[in-house]
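quick one, 62 residues, struct below
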Amino acid sequence: MNRENEILYKIDTIIKYLKENNGYDYKLYNRICPDMGEADSNIVEYAEDVLDIVEEMINIYK
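---
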């Protein structure tokens, strides 16, 4: 397994774990000042965003 596939596999495994273990209930903020209102995201969305960014970086690298 090359390094790109390894990182993508590991992030995907983390996302699956979070989905199966109430990751949608772990609320986060999509802005810098979290004291302004309620959380508008969750840890699963954050992890999926990280996966998208890593995939984009891999494509740029290639």
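The beta strands are 27-28, 41-42.
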